[in-house]
Amino acid sequence: MRIVHTPDSSRHDPERYMRRGAPIPHPEQAARYAILRDAAVRGGHDLAEPADHGLGPIRAVHDPDYVAFLAEAWARRDEIPGIGDEILTGSFARPQMHRKPPGLLGRLGLYTADTSTPIRAGTWAAVYGSAQCAVAAADAALAAGHAYALCRPPGHHAYADSAGGFCFLNNSAIAAERMRAATGGPVAILDIDVHHGNGTQGIFYARPDVLTVSVHADPSEVGLT
Predict the structure, then answer these.
(1) Which ranges of 30-159 would DSSP assign to H, the alpha helix?
(2) Which of 107, 143, 159, 215 could lock onto 199 through a cystine, CB 3.0 to 4.6 A?
């Protein structure tokens, strides 16, 4: 099978995470990419790196201002005094806020849903590369009937205009929209992750041309984060 991957996936490597009020090592580490890539190599699959399809496929499902925020945030880090190796906030936008904040700290609260998605020096390269893998795999699947996008960081918790749950860009939504645009027909997404694919559902909720199905556990029953 064609496996589309990029070494840029390892450039986002967060260290810390708050789980139920306690700091722990971040669960979504760069090692995940290496584990999956090495398994694909051992399995004898056809590994390929994606071409650069630009921002068009990303903006097809994501808000352009949100995409610009992700691309520019690290370069704007000096706006926050005392910043270290990652940009993070503990204050988030509320529905009662009706004006988009201009500063970086305010944008962090507007465009992130939790503390699982810190922005680091290599974050944009990693999430951009992951999205390009989704695009390339969608094209390969249309041509050959199947393909696998090794996307890391993951994507299904990312909404059109916000990051959360370790996710920045919604790779499955990007791939689905790529396939829908190419075929002109309806596309279905089957999400079998233990967590709800809430971002994917949110992106396509009002659209009849993409069906989203998420099979997931109830976090109140099993204590999931």
Answers:
(1) 31-42, 56-59, 64-72, 104-111, 123-144
(2) 159
Average per-residue pLDDT for the chain: 94
Q: Please report where in the chains the tokens 């990419």 appear, as a residue.
A: 33
Question: CA-to-CA distance for 210 and 164, rounded, in angstroms?
Answer: 22
Beta bridge partners of 167: 164
The enclosing H or E element of 154 equals none
* Cβ–Cβ under 8 Å, residues 109 and 91: yes
Residue 225 has pLDDT above 70, yes or no: no
- Is residue 157 annotated as part of the catalytic site, yes or no? yes
**Looking at 157, 195, 196, 216, which residue is catalytic?**
157
Q: Please, what is the Cα angle at 15 between 105 and 168, to 5 degrees?
A: 55
The pairing of beta strand 22-25 with beta strand 187-191: unpaired
Contact 37, 5 (CB under 8 A): yes
Among 7, 15, 6, which Cα is nearest to 120's?
Answer: 15
φ, ψ at 11 (rounded to 5°): -80, -15
Which tokens sit at 207? 């659209």
The reported pLDDT for the residue numbered 21 is 84
Task: Compute the half-sphere exposure of residue 125: CA atoms within 13 Å on the CB side of its CA.
Answer: 13
For the chain, what's the residue count?
Answer: 225
Beta strands in the chain (DSSP E): 2-4, 16-19, 22-25, 46-48, 148-149, 187-191, 210-214
Identity of residue 92? F
| DSSP 8-state code for residue 164 | B
